[in-house]
Task: inverse folding
């Protein structure tokens, strides 16, 4: 995977036209993964909930997960706000918003207007059962899976053949994940070659302060904030990073945390987290626990304000924080969600010119990789923490998985020729 990313970067840099032409490799791999995400989530959740003896635990797990998400999403937003005020990466640019080309930005603004809180909440309910899987809307799949899992559990013994069928299908789909993941280096190679070939390393030079600030802030968030959470929960964040290194490289190469979602669910189970908890926390976290996106939103918003000479009072910044907490949920799961949520926030907060988003449009792809990596680590930590709170964490398995030298190089459950072994 690492060699593929390096090779892709070199081709994109020295032969940019070839790098751009390799884009279909990355797109095809991401489509392969997205094709199986919905059924993997559905089968994992249904079989997990159906095996629960106490259905009250489903609501308890969800409540604890959302409490965690709300707390750390808010912390991420505040950190982005504080860092932007201290570092002030946009100060001194003195850009007149009227001189900016906003054609592409307008497309994101329109998408942001279409994503209201009400439409988001009602959109969780699919028009049809098949529609949730066809559209690939994770929240709709999650809603139907929880509902169906509860129904199977209430049906009792009569529904056990269905449970066994779903468990067998789940094993088959995870084997399919293992097969598809063999193409991960090819996908990462094509996606990274395209990114460098299309935008070029030099395109971020004049905005390097913002990019560097964002990467450093996200790194400190993972190491310090999530590191302290991990220590309190009984594990090392560095050991977790080592355990998930293959998935992190995949996220880096494809600039999409979704590409590693099935693998993350599998590895969290192998690390001792109970299957029902993994099935609930990981998919939900992909929409509601976006730490990297939240850091980006407040940091980018203040960068635009500073670059355009817009003065924001403490009250304005607190308003920005409050709006960002809502808008980051309202546009969850939308393609280009980071940029769309920023557009949604700036369209509500008075003073900060939306046209200023044109300043960061060219480098958004580079920051997207950091957003995805931070979001991915945030969800991995959340899963372990919630599993520990709920008593669904096998600490011996966790210690063995995170131990130095453990064989954790695979992107998914390894293929087993003889299940009896």
Result:
């Amino acid at each position: 995977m690492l060699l593929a990313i390096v090779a892709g970067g070199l081709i994109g840099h020295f032969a940019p036209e070839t790098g751009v032409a390799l884009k279909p490799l990355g797109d095809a791999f991401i489509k392969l993964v997205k094709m199986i995400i919905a059924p993997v989530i559905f089968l994992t959740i249904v079989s997990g909930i159906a095996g629960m003896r106490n259905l009250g635990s489903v609501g308890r797990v969800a409540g604890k997960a959302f409490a965690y998400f709300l707390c750390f999403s808010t912390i991420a937003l505040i950190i982005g706000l504080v860092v932007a005020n201290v570092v002030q990466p946009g100060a001194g640019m003195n850009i007149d918003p009227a001189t900016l080309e906003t054609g592409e930005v307008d497309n994101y603004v329109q998408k942001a207007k279409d994503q209201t809180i009400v439409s988001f909440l009602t959109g969780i309910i699919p028009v049809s059962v098949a529609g949730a899987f066809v559209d690939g809307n994770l929240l709709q799949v999650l809603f139907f899976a929880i509902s169906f899992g509860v129904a199977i559990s209430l049906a009792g013994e009569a529904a056990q053949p269905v449970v066994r069928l779903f468990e067998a299908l789940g094993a088959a789909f995870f084997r399919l994940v293992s097969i598809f993941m063999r193409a991960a280096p090819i996908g990462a190679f094509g996606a990274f070659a395209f990114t460098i070939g299309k935008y070029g390393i030099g395109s971020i030079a004049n905005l390097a302060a913002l990019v560097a600030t964002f990467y450093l802030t996200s790194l400190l968030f993972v190491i310090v904030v999530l590191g302290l959470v991990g220590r309190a929960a009984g594990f090392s964040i560095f050991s977790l990073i080592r355990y998930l290194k293959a998935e992190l490289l995949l996220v880096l190469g494809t600039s999409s945390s979704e590409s590693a979602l099935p693998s993350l669910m599998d590895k969290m189970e192998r690390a001792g987290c109970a299957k029902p908890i993994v099935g609930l926390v990981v998919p939900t976290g992909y929409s509601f626990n976006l730490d990297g996106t939240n850091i980006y939103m407040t940091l980018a918003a203040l960068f635009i304000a500073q670059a355009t000479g817009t003065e924001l009072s403490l009250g304005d910044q607190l308003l920005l924080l409050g709006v960002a907490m809502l808008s980051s949920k309202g546009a969850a799961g939308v393609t280009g969600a980071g940029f769309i949520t920023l557009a949604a926030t700036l369209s509500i907060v008075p003073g900060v010119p939306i046209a200023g988003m044109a300043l960061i449009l060219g480098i958004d792809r580079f920051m997207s990789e950091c957003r995805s990596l931070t979001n991915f680590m945030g969800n991995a930590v959340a899963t372990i923490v919630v599993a520990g709170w709920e008593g669904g964490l096998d600490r011996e398995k966790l210690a063995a998985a995170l131990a130095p030298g453990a064989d954790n190089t695979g992107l998914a459950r390894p293929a087993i020729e003889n299940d009896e072994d």
User: Anything to note?
Assistant: Residues 330-335, 414-421 have pLDDT under 50 and may be disordered. The radius of gyration is 21 Å. The longest helix spans residues 56-87.
